[in-house]
Structure formats: C-alpha cells, structure tokens
Amino acid sequence: MNLHNRIMQSGLLLILLFTLFGCSNGQDTTASSQGTTTTAASQAGDASNEHFLVFFLNPDGAPCRMQDQILAGMSNELQDKVNLYYVRTSVPDDMKIFYAYGIRGLPALLLADASGKEIKRLPPGVRSADEIRSLLKVLPAG
User: Fold this and answer.
1) 3-25+34-136: which CATH topology?
2) How do residues 74-109 score in pLDDT, each as one tens digit?
3) What is the pLDDT of residues 49-69, one digit of tens each?
C-alpha cells in the first residue's frame, strides 16, 4: 500500500471517529438520554408539513442533549412549520444520512424539503431558539 492510500485511510478514519464521538463527553448517559431514543421515522410527525428540521446528534453528547432540550422547548412553535427528524450516531442506518449531507460536527441542524433536498443549514454547535427561528424564516409563509 502506498503512502497516499495510507494517508487517505487515516484521514477517513479520523473523520469517522470525529463524527461518531464529536460531541460525546465520555459519560454513560443511557438513563438521561431517554428523550432521544425514538426512531427517526416516528419523529417525522404530521406528514402534512412539507419541510423537515433535521437534527443530527450523538445521544450521549452533552452539547447534543442541550440542543435537544432547546428543540423540546420549541415543540409547540415547530409543530405547525416543520417535522422534526432525529438522525443519531447510535443508529447504524442513520450513518448513511450523515454521509449524504456531509455532516462532520455535532450537534447539527439542517432544513430540508419533503424530498430531502437541503434548503439551509446552521453551523455545527448548540444553536439558540432565536437562531432556529431565523433559520425557519426561509420557509414560505403558510
């Protein structure tokens, strides 16, 4: 194996590890992450909403849990505008979604249309309710 291939493999491994453990604080939080254990499909909510707020997270990471609390506090506000869709590092099938959108930092929020096409995303990290409201302003009034 040549040097170039070894460097590429090492780089991909580092990216994968960062994605998997990017916002993990290293503590076992199985009991405290009960709020984010339902499947992404059950989070899709009312199919009449045409847009999705996609939340990429590591359920064990403190920043991701903080972001989840902010979103939970906005649930009444979000329910008429978007379907909240959770994509977790702990769900093997969700990793395809991480790769498809090129997510490399957590937590991450992305606004998508009904077909999954990205409309806009916020930079990775914990985002305030006001930042999320600002993101939703790109949606047509309805």
Assistant:
1) Glutaredoxin (3.40.30)
2) 999 999 899 999 999 999 999 999 999 999 999 999
3) 799 999 999 999 999 999 999
Among positive and negative, which fits the CA dihedral 69, 81, 100, 35? positive
CA separation for the pair 73, 26 (Å, rounded): 26
The letter for the amino acid at 54 is: V
Integer-rounded Cα Rg, in Å, for the chain is 16
- Report which residue type is found at 5: N
Q: How far apart are CA 52 and CA 12, in angstroms?
A: 29
Q: Answer yes or no: are the C-beta atoms of 83 and 51 closer than 8 Å.
A: yes
* Residue 57, SS3 per DSSP: strand
pTM above 0.90, yes or no: no
Cα 114 from Cα 46, distance rounded (Å): 12
HSE-CB of 127 using CA atoms within 13 angstroms: 24
Ramachandran sector of residue 9 (left: φ over 0; alpha: ψ -120 to 50; beta: rest): alpha
